[in-house]
Amino acid sequence: MEYKLQCKQNRKFRKSILDHRRKKYLRKRKRVCEVNAPENSNSICYRIASAGTSTTIQYHEEQLNLGLPEYMCQYCGALFWYAERIAKYRNGKKPIFSMCCQEGKITLELLHPPPQFLANLLQYKGSQESVNFRKNIRTYNSMFAFTSIGAKVDNEVNKKPGPYVFKISGQNYHRMGSLLPTNGQRPKFAQLYIYDIENEIDNRMRAFNSSDEIKNINRNIVRSLLEMFDCVNEIVKAFRMVRDRFRIDDYLPISLRLIGDRAENRPQYNPPSCSEIAGLIVGDLGVADRHRDIVVEHKTDGLKCISELHPSFMAMQYPILFPYGEDGFRIEERIDYIRRNQSDLRVELYKGIKDAIVAGDVDGDAFIPEQKAEDRPDIVSRVFKMKLEALMADIKNGTYFGKIVAEFQKRGLPHVHILVWLHANHKFPSSSEINSIISAEIPNKNIDRIRYETVSKFMIHGPCGLANSKAPCMAKGWCSKHFPKEFRTETLMDENGFAIYRRRDDGRYVTKNGINLDNRFVVPHNLRLIVKYQAHINVEWCNKTRLIKYLFKYVNKGPDRTRAVIEDNWLPGDVRSVRQFKEVDEIKKYLDCRYLSAYESVWRLFQFDIHCRDPTVERLTVHMPLMHNIVYHGSQDLSDVLCRYNIEKTMFTEWMAANRMYDDARELTYEEFPTKWVWHQDSKVWTRRKKGNRIGRVIYVRPNSGELYFLRMLLNKVKGPRYYHEIKTINGIVYETFRAACDALGLLGDDLEWRSALEEASHWSSPFNLRQLFVTLVMYCEVGDPKKLWDDYWELMSDDILYRLEEMLGIRNLKMPRQDLQNYVLFELELLFNKNSSSLSQFKLPVPSKILPEDMDNRLLREETEYDVDALRLEHSKLFSGLNEEQLTIYCAVVSSVYENKGGIFFVYGHGGTGKTYLWQTKIARLRSKGKIVLAVASSGIASLLLPGGRTAHSRFKIPIKLDDFSTCEIKKGTQLARLIQSTSLIIWDEAPMNHRNCFEALDRSLRDILCTEETIPENVFGGKTVVLGGHFRQILPVIVGGKRQDIVNASITKSYRETRGSSEHKPVQNKPISGLPEQACSGRLGGTCACAAARNGCGGEVKSERSPQLATEARRLAAVEQPSRHG
């Protein structure tokens, strides 16, 4: 009773204030209506809500004008537009609104007015200081914030035209340091309230590294804000209290404890006292609730995260919004809400509603002149919602495109994607009919002035390309939206269903940023729509299944980032991608992929629809007798579960029950039933439909599901069955199985059922899923003629291939011969069959006519196979002639190991100048010229630059920075890097002694894991790959911080378990003096020591260096060997 009385008194008090403000607002609005529109254009409400004046032009198109908000919530007094009322089908004089307070269910305390100085700064018609403050308000807020913010900020969004948007992604963190900065560090954030306060203003301004930010900051504003916070902000007072303690010469180390629990009898939005906020802890911390409290230590390294559940969380990050240090919220509020609303919990409470919805501050002054769109995301979102509803009403009424049968929309603020199906009688197959609803040209400026200005303002792309290479749409040197288009005298439809619109070279252009843009830069649109709504509305035509599936993929791709839990380098359509899924934290992945701006945050707070369909689709379940699913708790007794009321009833069984009770119900198939009947899940009963529209879709059943699949086929044909046996009754004959009934109806034979399965799935399934379905049908469903099924449906399974290649290679309008495209699909199918221990040939299906470059969409592989083979062949010929005896010995041993797939470790020992790099270059040129892959790495970045295509070992193999005896490289099976390593023939590692032995052991473990197959030996050194290590031990050995001599020796590669198992000894062999050789032959080395010790598959040995006829013969044989150009 006391609570209700308090709420009633609050409402009366608010109403008296709101009545006064409403009268003031209406007087202002009357004056606004009496003057011309251009003089009112400063009002943010006027500029956003009205699309222009309600002027009828030559083509009888009225520009939409929503006017100003004239209606008030009867519970809290918030202002609304009439179009925002609930129950829009009612036209009452007293409309009801629920967006603000949920029809009186939410009561918030009135906000305290800001301090006078801050109020003056927030005025839109204030002084120059006010203009400076509002322009740099985020910088001023950061100057006085106690905590830092950590988030990924999307700066790309502001490169596009439109209002400024602050957009972040991922988990949003707030961190706080210690009370005092560590030695040598500048004070930041909360430390600025305690440390070196004599220079506090300078310290705050120096906290920003950007000179531009410092230049825009007004020192007087900083000083005045500092004085204001010292006087009114209780959190500031708590930190000043710590400052006073540090002024004492002899003080003990102290900590500041920001208390999480507040006094329960204090009103929520009243500023807490300093004693409620903080307490000092002298000496040891002792007992404290570290989860709920914030304990700021005396002096520590690093930052600590602040719990978002702390009452002071918001006030510490946003002191400008909470100048008194008010509590943002308390977690006990939810319990209090549940206690008061136990009888009705269907209404969700808006958390932080006061931050986003203008509920308490509802007078006419809320709509302030000079405001910009970015200042009021709430108004922008609300007006966008009203315009969207008006647009959908126009589309549904057939005003612009004719009669429609369904629509689909996906909201991705600040825009919306809409897919519309037109009625068969209202489709436009001819070019002239498409031109009547979609235009891609600039109107005549002299005849259609309004249309010309609208197209110029909203529907011109660019400038981009050569005129503006830094445009947001530019990617890899060309426009990602494929502008400019080509001139075309007539509209055409290409083979994939894409419309190529008419764009005549008529000399019309629009000047944008000083550049003339003609019809090639016009975004397709409907002229009547963009004139009415004064907005960018891109209208495209599609009339083929494959295009609709492509559009659905785009429509469903989500707000800005996908939330699919798939590795970044996942290859769509490749069966091996199944192995590339990562085990991830799904919540973290969701947060990492979610991008939120102010507009989307407000949209969600208002609980506007993110996704909707019209008409609604009813998913119809189907099951065999007594084979439906039930849900129960694991601890429940099964006998109790079976005794539940209506547990035996399902949507499917009750459909047959309705057929038994009502004769008119028997005139409908199962799929047609929801159009006339409504399913009530709570009572499990079908009732007659009185209003609304809904269509049914029977859930998909896989073809290998046996009788259930044939039951589903019959449901599309049989009307009004009352029992299961009536479904399989054909012409009075009750068949024993559903399959037999399908056969009697002519649904089987000549693989009709499998054709039907592929045909149905092709309308909504991706090509990759279609290929999987084809493999399932052929392997498990007794397909009579797999070859004919392939011939009829292979094109549907190829829709994604060209698209993937275009995206991967960055090639526009990529063309592939029909035979090559078919060959690619066969290769994809072969991979799927192989996964199931089968093959295409086993079912007498065509096999790929040639070995496809299955990894052509692997960027890493493409980088290693794009070398100029002819140039490498010439380079090798030159380098090979310059090898000395020792180099030739090593060359022959390594190349033989590669060609004979022997694998093993080779260590080439020699100090600087002995020709190791020359040897590397010769072997690399030889193998790469034959189409083989060589991975050249080095221990340092400088050394890697001397190797053709070289990289550091840590970068190439993802070797962890922190290593131990059990570490592995961060390479997962099935990734692009793993597939690159599988295709690699040779690994060269220069300056190897500089690396810790754990680096080699980690790579060894990873390669054995990646390359392990049934044919390989698990204990093969480096998985059986040929690995050449080079260097000498007179250079820098592994660096061990603070280590002694024995520690450094123990970290050396010579102490690796692989070296001890793989090689019994390493003996250098001296080079003999060089004489009698031509100058060209001497260019490859500078003399010295060079040796090679080999270890293959665990058997050690050394390569002798004596020149022999056999060695010369081996060198000639290797030089003459011709291998296929394919890598491997």
Automatic annotation (TrEMBL):
Question: The organism sits in which domain of life?
Answer: Eukaryota
The cross-references to Gene3D superfamilies, in alphabetical order and at most eight, read: P-loop containing nucleotide triphosphate hydrolases (3.40.50.300)
GO BP terms, alphabetized: DNA recombination; DNA repair; telomere maintenance
Cofactor list: Mg(2+)
Keyword GTP-binding included in the entry's annotation: no
Q: Which reaction does it catalyse?
A: ATP + H2O = ADP + phosphate + H(+)
- Enzyme Commission code(s) on record: 5.6.2.3
One short Pfam name that applies is: PIF1
| Molecular function (Gene Ontology), one example | hydrolase activity
Q: Which intervals hold domain DNA helicase Pif1-like DEAD-box helicase?
A: 883-1057
Region: Disordered, residue numbers? 1099-1128
**Which SUPFAM superfamilies does its entry note?**
P-loop containing nucleoside triphosphate hydrolases
Task: Give yes or no: UniProt keyword Nucleotide-binding.
Answer: yes
Domain Helitron helicase-like, by residue range, is: 370-420
- Please give the coiled-coil regions recorded for this protein: none
Look at the named UniProt entry and state the broad enzyme category this protein falls under.
Answer: isomerase
Q: Which UniProt keywords apply?
A: ATP-binding, DNA damage, DNA recombination, DNA repair, Helicase, Hydrolase, Nucleotide-binding
Family stated for the protein in its record: Belongs to the helicase family.
What name has this protein been given in UniProt?
ATP-dependent DNA helicase
